[in-house]
Amino acid sequence: MISRRCASDLCLVLPLSKAGSGSTLQNLETLLRSILAQLCFNQAEIPDAMKRLYGVDGKDHPEPTVSQLRTTLGEVVKGFDDVYILIDALDECDSQAGLLDWMNSLQSTTPGLHLFVTSRPERIIEERMSNSRHVHISLSSQLLDNDIKAYVDDRVEASNDLKSLMTEEMKKKLRVKGDGMFRLVAFWIDDLKYCLNAKDIIETLEHLPSSLNGMYASMVSKINRKHLPYAQAIIKWLLFSMRKLTLEEIAAVSWFDFSHGRPAFDKNCGFRNPKAVLDVCGGLVVMSQDQIMLAHLTIKEFLLQEDSPLRVNEPDAHSFIAQSCLAYLLDQIQPGAVLGKIPKVSPMNLL
Questions:
Q1: Which of 311, 144, 145, 89 is nearest to 216 (CA)?
Q2: Are residues 115 and 176 in the same domain?
Q3: Does the record bear Glycosyltransferase in its keywords (predicted)?
């Protein structure tokens, strides 16, 4: 989050992206709280509306609701001539409908608040915004070309091998094939780093996947067959766990033996180094501040929709997670037991 004070105006930048730094605001309540915190930080005194909301007036107050946060935000904004907020990656927000409704309501209730929003062109967003007053700016690949050129130049310059091997013509071909997709170009450069000579680079450029899904399919195909059961389990936990998982927690997936068709707890199977999680998943996951997450939101879409050895079915994933938890608990009662074979255990042993 970035804030900048300009006389009596305030500019805020709020990222909703799920991938990357980990400092994300993925629902409306968290977003509203963040905006209010930054607005208060940029005022000499705590606004009266905030005092009432959080009980600074000496009275007991319950935790504020989203509706109360919205109302309070409208009052606090009045302390500025204008407030400009950039919300990045709206399409990655967990509560798009609520956020879009709030954004539309701002036009009539909060005249001093101005929003600039970035997003992929998703149907629900386009439909909700169709009846609102807004300016739509579509970024074509031509408009992004200079930015991608700068990105490619920086990445190549940072790699001694690529710097000595890649010509301007090669870099141009990379940009043209990318057609405005930063993520795709980033994956390609990661692949090119393994080239040993200029001929390798030329051949690799000729056979690069032409879409993100094609790139993800290529990444999945390179995962060692012996590692696939681990990768499948890790992906299921990452997609459907109730909270973000640390490296140590997700590495615990390796403690399960999958050879019986269902998870059986066996700590002897565990990874010697928890960071093996990153190797097993072939670049589909990244670590940020000791938390493991998918490298990009589009990977989740690929895993849920496209045919691949890592394709995930949500009900099956929830069942798998439940079985894994039960297998772990069962092992605490009867070490070495396999889920499905009910051990003879006295109820007293469970206490």
A1: 311
A2: no
A3: no
